[in-house]
Specification:
The complex is a heterotrimer of chains A (325), B (267) and C (267).
Chain A (H helix, E strand, L loop, with lengths): L3 H36 L4 H8 L6 H10 L6 H13 L13 H36 L4 H15 L2 H15 L12 H30 L2 H8 L4 H38 L5 H10 L3 H29 L13
Helix pairs in contact in A: 1-12, 2-3, 5-8, 5-10, 6-8, 7-8, 7-10, 8-10, 10-11, 10-12, 11-12
Chain B lengths: L1 H6 L1 H18 L1 H4 L31 H12 L1 H22 L3 H16 L2 H12 L3 H28 L2 H8 L4 H38 L10 H10 L5 H27 L2
Helix pairs in contact in B: 2-4, 2-12, 5-8, 5-10, 6-8, 7-8, 8-10, 10-11, 10-12, 11-12
Chain C lengths: L2 E11 L5 E11 L3 E5 L6 H8 L8 E8 L2 E2 L5 H10 L1 E4 L3 H4 L6 H12 L4 H14 L5 H6 L7 H13 L5 E5 L7 H18 L2 E6 L2 H7 L2 E6 L2 E7 H6 L4 H13 L10
Classes of the chains: A mainly alpha (325), B mainly alpha (267), C alpha/beta (267).
């Protein structure tokens, strides 16, 4: 049996292991991005020339190809590229000529505010409702709301946003539908995102509550007559902390996707819209830079939450991976 | 049979709707009241009427006809894409379940990357570098979903491996591959099938969403997402342009969701 | 000799109308132990859950449960909470399952005490440690700061008993508390229980499938089969002269276990 002193040792070992995996997955992903980039139709040398605003003449292109090592092997090219990128040298936008890194950072503010508020609001709404439904499983109210969630999952975010736009921007024009300058501009986008995500969250939290309240130690705690103010937060919620944390981690990607749609519909000048538009402009540095940034963010986020797992449940052994049977 | 229908009114209705939808989609060239691409500036932006039950769009095209033709653009490709995902999942997932520790861990790390990343991100990277065109879009969607199925199938096969009747048939000398195809895979198919049906719903939303964003289907295609994009631009003048395509997406996705949920409760 | 708890015509039905417990009646006297014997599925656990009002939501209960004159079905939620743990304590088969895995043992004791009585944390800890030493656990401070998975099965069992008895309840419901233990620990726990009961004049409802243990602990025995109490009576009567053939079967098996002798020893 593990003594309390051994716990910190296990934790340290696990942290290092997870950190290693973090780096590995990120490198693999960068390889993937690089491969796709090389597969892109078109000539990289010309692209690079365009990147610095020069004209791709044939002789210069050939020189560059030698100079930039484009006649080298794939691995060598990748290493050279990776060297640049991992030092934060993300290049310059093909369209604006500005450094990608600074353009991204400029827009991160509004997008993160959008995602963060929507995320928090979703949690705030879904957790109480989900728990309530779970504890009242089978009652009329629970069944009605549950059926509604089935429909709710099928509503496209983009359609809902349009309907909201129409209702609150056209019929009854109370809220702005374009831009992000004031806080009021955030209301519709955040509402749309929150509504769509909440449906999913409510269902999951409800399912966890049902599952976890059946656990014998929860039932036993109830059999002891614990006070509600102690029972719900410390016992029930604490055991649900891990699945809810998992839920948060696995749903973060969907918030990103939702933000792209939301920012586009509401002409919200944020990071996600910037990334999307880069496709249309074939702005490779932007695509590459923002993709790596988002991936890095998600991987690091997952890493942090993995650490939280251990704090929450001392039984969890971090050297066991998530998929281990 | 009747009792099954009576007990499951909503899923049955959903199933009927889908069958109807598929038939309509296949018969579109014959059923559709108008030519979905035919523009008519005299008839533009008309609200729903008997002549045009869904109204007309900004180019005078009948929306109902466009919606009908859109079935084959918005719904059928989903079936194909998910079939490919299922195939990959079965092949790679089953193979992965029989791997040794190190290789298995590598495979799991690989799938870990793809499940952790937003499908939108993968799509942007793929389409951004490889260019527009439906093949790339489909590739991106497959890329986003394959990992999920590989992991689940791997897990299921792991469990099935331990089942007593599998051990029994091995004892009786049955050949490995035969066990896998004749016993294990049919065993897990019901669960996979249910998941696929539920995922049809999500992929319909995803594909149409991509078209809505300008990736994937392009105007003048009657794909529902593209139609929604037009609808958004004319929201104030012709709200029905934005309503009907979205409603179709919703209805279709919801039907698959309802059926899938009902199947899931069977377990 | 007063009747502490009376169960009259207890019926437990599931959604399909099947009767899981049928018209069961028995009573518990102060200071006496009632053993409810039966195989798994006979309804004995459901009976104990009904007494605590902790039946799963999909089951329906009818009948009367009277605790010292109070009809338990009519109680408010608040009153119920004070009864659970305060008047009625419960211990189960798997102690690790009864103790929350992520909360230190000491904290669980404190939470329990402070849910029922207005005491300080310090006082609660003191009482807890006292209780722990009463169940013959030695390093009480270590136990208090440990998690359930850090202690052995036998230790956890004692912790569970300590927790159940912390508030000095009038009734202890023990649902197969020793079935998962090895023979030596089983004996230790049984002896411990007997001592504790004799000390405190507590009544116990002991649920088991083991006639031998009942012989040692109980004053009255009830035999349950498929939801019905088929025979009930004092320990002596049941063991020496069982009337129902099922009981006779049980006794036969027991005496066969015990070195083939015809009699079952009881204290």
């Amino acid at each position: 049996m593990a003594l309390p002193e051994e716990r910190s040792e296990v934790m340290l070992r696990s942290m290092i292991h997870r950190l290693f995996m973090l780096v590995v997955t990120f490198v693999l992903f960068s390889l993937f991005v690089f491969t796709l980039m090389r597969l892109a139709p078109g000539d990289p040398a010309s692209m690079l020339l365009l990147e610095i605003g020069a004209v791709p003449e044939q002789s210069i292109v050939a020189d560059l190809q030698k100079q930039w090592g484009l006649d080298q092997s794939f691995i060598q090219q990748y290493l050279a590229w990776a060297n640049h990128v991992f030092q934060g040298e993300l290049g310059h936008s093909f369209s604006s000529g500005e450094p990608v890194l600074s353009e991204m950072i400029e827009r991160l503010g509004s997008t993160s505010k959008l995602i963060a508020s929507s995320f928090l609001l979703t949690l705030f709404i879904s957790i109480p409702i989900g728990i309530w439904m779970g504890l009242n499983e089978g009652t009329m109210a629970d069944r009605v709301v549950y059926s509604m969630t089935i429909l709710g999952l099928s509503i496209p975010l983009y359609w809902l946003a349009i309907l909201l736009m129409y209702a609150l921007g056209v019929i009854w024009p109370v809220l702005p539908v374009v831009g992000s300058s004031t806080t009021r501009h955030y209301i519709l986008p955040v509402t749309a995102m929150t509504l769509v995500q909440s449906v999913y969250f409510i269902r999951m939290v409800r399912s966890y509550t049902i599952q976890y309240s059946k656990f014998s130690y929860i039932e036993a705690a109830k059999a002891r007559g614990l006070r509600p103010s102690i029972f719900y937060p410390s016992y029930l919620l604490r055991s649900m902390f891990i699945p809810i944390l998992t839920l948060i981690t696995t749903s973060l990607p969907s918030f990103f996707g939702a933000s792209i749609i939301t920012e586009t519909i509401f002409s919200f000048p944020g990071f996600s819209k910037y990334m999307l538009e880069a496709i249309f402009r074939r702005d490779f540095p932007v695509i590459q830079g923002s993709a790596l940034f988002v991936a890095a963010f998600i991987f690091v986020f997952n890493f942090m939450t993995d650490l939280l797992y251990f704090l929450a449940d001392p039984r969890v052994h971090l050297d066991k991976q998530r998929w281990e049977v | 049979m009747i009792s099954i229908i009576r007990a499951n009114k909503l899923p049955t209705a959903a199933l009927l709707y889908i069958i109807l939808l598929i038939i309509t989609g296949l018969a579109a060239p014959w059923i559709s009241p108008y030519d979905p691409f035919h523009t008519n500036h005299q008839q533009k932006l008309l609200p729903p009427s008997v002549a045009h039950p869904f109204g007309t769009d900004y180019l005078g095209r009948d929306l109902l006809s466009r919606v009908i033709h859109g079935i084959s653009e918005s719904v059928f490709p989903v079936f194909i894409v998910l079939s490919v995902v299922m195939l990959i999942g079965l092949l790679v997932g089953t193979w992965s379940a029989f791997l040794g520790n190190k290789l298995d861990m590598l495979m799991m790390s690989l799938t870990d990357i793809f499940t952790a990343l937003p499908s939108m991100l993968l799509t942007i990277v793929v389409v951004g570098f490889l260019g527009f065109g439906m093949e790339n879009v489909y590739f991106a969607v497959i890329l986003s979903w394959w990992a999920k199925y590989v992991r689940i199938i791997r897990g299921l096969i792991h469990d099935v491996k331990k089942e007593p009747y599998i051990t029994a048939s091995r004892v009786s000398g049955a050949f490995g591959l035969r066990i896998i195809t004749r016993h294990m895979i049919p065993n897990i198919m019901p669960q996979i099938g249910t998941m696929l049906i539920l995922d049809v719903s999500k992929v319909i939303l995803t594909l149409s969403g991509l078209s809505f964003l300008g990736i994937g289907a392009q105007p003048p295609s009657p794909e529902w997402g593209v139609m929604l994009l037009d609808g958004k631009n004319y929201l104030q003048v012709a709200p029905w342009m934005g309503f009907f395509p979205g409603f179709m997406i919703f209805l279709t996705a919801a039907s698959f969701q309802i059926i899938g949920e009902r199947l899931r409760r069977e377990r | 000799m007063t009747t502490l708890l009376e169960v009259k015509n207890l019926n437990i039905r599931n959604k399909e109308g099947q009767s899981l417990v049928h018209n069961s009646s028995f009573s518990l006297e102060t200071g006496k132990t009632y053993a409810l014997i039966g195989e798994s599925g006979s309804g004995k656990t459901l009976t104990s859950k009904a007494i605590l009002d902790m039946l799963p939501a999909h089951l329906q209960m009818s009948g009367d449960i009277v605790l010292q004159g109070e009809h338990l079905q009519q109680l408010s939620r608040k009153r119920w909470r004070s009864i659970r743990g305060g008047q009625i304590g419960a211990i189960f088969q798997h102690p690790e399952q009864a103790l929350h895995p992520s909360i230190p043992i000491g904290r669980q004791f404190v939470d329990l005490m402070r849910s029922h009585l207005p005491v300080s944390r310090y006082e609660a800890e003191k009482q807890a440690k006292k209780m722990l030493s009463q169940v013959l656990l030695k390093d009480t401070s270590h136990v208090m700061s440990s998690y359930a998975h850090e202690l052995s099965g036998g230790m956890n069992q004692r912790v569970m008993i300590a927790m159940a008895l912390l508030l000095k309840p009038k009734i202890l419901i023990a649902d197969e508390p020793t079935s998962a233990l090895d023979v030596k620990t089983q004996a230790e726990i049984i002896f411990l229980l007997k001592e504790l009961i004799l000390d405190t004049e507590m009544s116990m409802l002991f649920i088991t499938h083991d006639l031998l243990i009942s012989g040692y602990l109980a004053d009255t025995i009830g035999v349950m089969r498929e939801g019905k109490i088929i025979e009930q009576g004092s320990k002596e009567n049941i063991i020496s002269a069982p009337e129902h053939e099922y009981t006779q079967e049980l006794c036969r098996h027991c005496s066969q276990r015990f070195l083939g002798k015809g009699e079952i020893p009881y204290a």
